[in-house]
Amino acid sequence: MHESDIPAPTTSAHAGAADDPIVAGRRRLGRNLQAGWRLLLGLRGGSERLTASLGQILLLSLLLLALRGASLYLLTPAPQVFDGFGLNYLGASYLLALLLLALVTRLVCSGAHSFARVLTGFLSASVPLALIAWLAWWLQERARLPQMMDWGVYLALLLWQLLVVMRLLRAEAGAAPLQALVGGGLFAGGVFASLWLLPYTPLWQTDYAEEADEYAPAPVIDVERTYYAQPQLLDQSIARLAPQRPGVTDLYFVGLAGYGDEDVFLKEVEYVRAQFDQQYATAGRSLLLVNNPATLTDYPLANRPNLVQALKAVARRMDTDEDLLFLFLTSHGSADHQLSLELGELQLNDLTPQQLRRALDEAGIRWRVLLVSSCYSGGFVDALKTPETLVITAAAADRTSFGCGAQSDFTYFGSAYFKQALPQQPRFIEAFELANDWVSQRERQEWIDASKPQRFVGAEIAAKLEQLYREAPLQALIERADAARVPCAARKGAQHCQP
To answer: Degrees (nearest 5) of the Cα angle 85, 90, 94?
Structure first.
């Protein structure tokens, strides 16, 4: 025996790696996924790289199921909850696709080995196609394209799948071009028909369980007594308004919580009123209009007549040339730009931007800071524009805002502007930038569509606000906030700063 005939020794490490079924299976999975990409892109040599086995089919199926579940989770608005019945739908749809694939393969070839390779190639291509599908749906939602585009995306993905099946039938089952076309068409037609044959159940649904209070029996409201109580409640609120101080730029605050079936709007206006009374010297110059079953004897209703009368009363108390109004409205909003005014059985009319503008103009209030927190609130901006007005909205005219709900304490924008931004930057215009950044960051983290808060600054309002900020209480507030933003080393010297 020649020395060259003796096999070279193999180290134990290499031998173990070569014999390890997990490592070998992982390598075959990698080659199959590479082949899937090539099949999907129509590149040559895709099917030749396939390794068909029962283990690979199971691995690819599990990987595809995991990707499908993850993509559905990411496309479902938060908070997501798992629905086990959705697995029935996924299982049925995948089983139907398997049977269709077996049928069309059998039509052109009877070999079981051919079907195994066709199935392996189909699963290998379906994995990257699932990633592409998730990206397409995500971009479609981010761009807020018309609903008809959903069908366009679906049909494009189905056509892509048909082309993969045709390539596999030709390469692995020996089908002629016409046979591959007919087989691929039968497969795609069956998958398309399954939209009506199989009852759809989503794997993930938005969890509204935490808002179960919304579906509890509505509290009984004595409609007649509530209506008759409005003049007295409104007169009492107006009577508590202090008159303006000559020579002082006073700020008056009016808060409106429009939607009475969720406490979040009541919580917001009460918090903001207390914040402004304490920090912006509006104590005695603030008034609330609230729709909530718990406050029917405490506040006037948030309806249009009360708002009109409240604004006129504020205008009578203030010097309209010298003083300013901060009007905060928080509620739900509609796509046609109406602010919801609703409370159980009470028949209240919603508020439009034009009606709000008319109420302000008729009251004669000149200097205005208006903050509208609702979905689609950007639709209020154009109607409210004047040189003496600052308008801030929680969302663009075509965007929803977030954070409302029976269990919520604050909406996203309300929390960002009043709880986070104003304590750091008490100036109203500048605080918007901080709030906008925080809201945008939170929406990105939660994978939800950007609300895109809006701001309009009239040509004269900024200078007027500077007069307000020079009043003693606000000046002290701003100085403290400005000092807090200066780095510690700059204020005290590095040796006095704590790490």
So the answer is: 150
Tell me the pairing of strands 204-206 and 80-82. Answer: antiparallel
Residue 364, token pair as written in the block: 């004669």
The residue count of the chain comes to 499
**Residue 228 pLDDT more than 50?**
yes
Query: Tokens 């990257």 belong to which residue?
Result: 128
Mean local confidence (pLDDT), 218-228: 85
pLDDT of residue 146: 57
Q: What pLDDT does residue 489 have?
A: 40
SS3 140: helix
Instruction: Provide the β-strand partners of residue 256.
Output: 289, 329
How many angstroms separate the CA atoms of 394 and 402, rounded? 9
Largest CA distance in the chain: 117
d(CA 150, CA 399): 19
At residue 338, the pLDDT reads 95
What phi, psi does 339 have (nearest 5°)? -85, 125
Angle at 167 (CA atoms; ends 164, 172), nearest 5 degrees: 120
Q: Is the pLDDT of residue 217 over 90?
A: no
Ordered structural domains, the chain, with CATH: 20-206 (no CATH), 222-485 (3.40.50.1460)
Q: Does residue 297 or residue 486 have the better pLDDT?
A: 297
pLDDT, the chain, mean: 86
Section 433-448 average pLDDT = 88
CB 327 within 8 A of CB 389: no
CA distance 315 to 364: 6
Residue 9 pLDDT more than 50?
A: no
| Angle 78-82-84 from CA coordinates, rounded to 5° | 155
- Report the DSSP pairing between strands 389-393 and 367-373: parallel
Residue that has been written with the tokens 């524009």 in this structure: 385
Tell me the whole-structure pTM to 2 decimals: 0.60
Nearest Cα neighbor of 35 from 48, 51, 46 is 46
Among 89-93, 367-371, 445-449, 480-484, name the one with the lowest average pLDDT.
445-449
Q: How far apart are CA 466 and CA 490, in angstroms?
A: 26
Residue 172 · residue 118 · CB < 8 Å: yes
The DSSP code sequence of 83-115 is: -THHHHHHHHHHHHHHHHHHHHHHHH---HHHH
Yes or no: say if 400 and 376 are a contact pair by the CB < 8 Å rule.
Answer: yes
DSSP string of 440-490?
A: HHHHHHTT------EEEE-TTHHHHHHHHHTSHHHHHHHHHHHHHHS-HHH
Q: What is the DSSP string of 4-28?
A: GGSPPP--HHHHHHHH-HHHHHHHH
Min mean pLDDT across 63-67, 197-201, 379-383, 486-490 is at 486-490
